[in-house]
Amino acid sequence: MTANLLEFDLEGLAVFCESLGEKRFRATQLFRWIHQRGMSNFDDMSDLAKVMREKLKVHAHVAALPILSQQFSKDGTIKWLFDVGAGDAVETVFIPEDDRGTLCVSSQAGCAVGCRFCSTGHQGFSRNLTTAEILAQLWFAEHFLRQHLGQSERVISNVVMMGMGEPLQNYSALIPALKAMLDDHGYGLSRRRVTVSTSGVVPMMTRLSQDCPVALAVSLHAPNNALRDNLVPLNRKYPLDELLEECTLYLNKAPRDFITFEYCMLKGVNDQRAHAQELVTLIRKHAGHGLRCKFNLIPFNPFKESGLLRSDDATVEEFASVLIQAGFVTTIRKTRGDDIDAACGQLAGDVMDRTGVANRIAQQRAVPIQWTDRKIS
Ligand code: SF4
After folding, report:
1. Where are the domains of the chain?
2. Ligand 1: distance of its center to the CA of 192 in Å?
3. Binding site membership of 91 for ligand 1 (Cβ less than 6 Å)
4. What mean pLDDT, rounded, does the chain reach?
5. What helix, strand, coil percent values describe the chain, rounded to 5?
6. Which among 63, 152, 179, 341 is least buried, having the fewest CB atoms inside 10 angstroms?
7. Alpha-carbon Rg of the chain, whole angstroms?
């Protein structure tokens, strides 16, 4: 079997080139052909010696993921469903805005965390994606979009690891992919423009801050442990204070001077004024230790299996106003790609649940969420 060169960051590609008896610096040329120019045919890589091209044809290939579907929203959002084999498929979404083009990338086929409001979580978990499968989403999307939009310059300016999966539970594949995104010979994205979103895998947040500190978004969704245990089951392992302490430490290495807290607004569950006030108290406690943050409120995209509803607009506005009055920068996420189910929390792909996660969540669903089991003021 030959190596898919999308599996490597530049250092990995240099080691691969050496294994073929080539000089390390050849890897830089090869990396540019692949990632900056979107080439997969070694014969087209004209500044590589013919001998090297022949060796590459024997030992390597550059393979995109097969596309199962491609949907275009009327607002310009594009969603792809990629086949990753054995009955699994993952989704990738491009979201164009006036000043940026953002690609939302998947890291796993399914997800084992099982958040109650997330359709990926409800599908269960099949497997981690490889580095090549993560990078192939960006490689394909960038070069497809240049052609589609008739642009020779870079189209994707931001990458968010917010598609299917918990990226920090696929750490060893994630890091080389992030490094290729940041590499000036690859996509040349700044650390501020590459965001890893986590539900709070605390030990891996520490490692990320050391290995490849990029912007960090944390899925918070609740102001106390009782509620967060229910919405984000990983909270039972890494409860809020531990998570927020790690966020504070992450900022010492982070390319941005704040953490983004994602908060999905669920009608009657976590969206009351009292919740916002409790959130303010919680974050202020940690702000004293240096935690700086902004909030991104996400209108929930309902799906039948969740048993949950979207907060109404007035409730979201009121929640935001409590945070803003307390001095926190707060945004309400615009939903994009609604007509093609591409909005946040809607990515579902097609996953063979090999771990029974989907069953566990179905059982949890039978238990109504009790957010008023203790008084908050
Ligand atoms: S929100 Fe993220 S961590 Fe939670 S189940 Fe969905 S993909 Fe997994």
Report:
1. 3-61, 67-365
2. 22
3. no
4. 92
5. 40, 20, 40
6. 152
7. 21
35 or 356: whose pLDDT is higher? 35
Give this prediction's pTM. Answer: 0.94
CATH dotted code for 3-61: 1.10.150.530
pLDDT score, position 21: 98
How far apart are the C-alpha atoms of 169 and 133, rounded to whole Å? 15
Whether 198 contacts 135, CB under 8 Å: no
Higher pLDDT, 197 or 354: 197
Query: Does the CB atom of residue 160 touch ligand 1 within 6 A?
Result: no
- Decide if 180 contacts 212 (C-beta within 8 A): no
Atom from ligand 1 closest to the CA of residue 163 = 7
Q: Tell me, what's the pLDDT at 371? A: 43
Higher pLDDT, 188 or 123: 188
Return the residue whose CA atom lies nearest to atom 4 of ligand 1.
115
Annotation says 344 is catalytic: yes
Among the options 7, 17, 22, 91, which is catalytic?
91
Class of the domain covering 67-365:
alpha beta
Is the beta carbon of 200 within 6 A of some atom in ligand 1? no
Distance 112 CA to ligand 1 centre (A): 8
Beta bridge partners of 310: 266
Ligand 1 within 6 A of CB of 234 = no
pLDDT at 354: 75
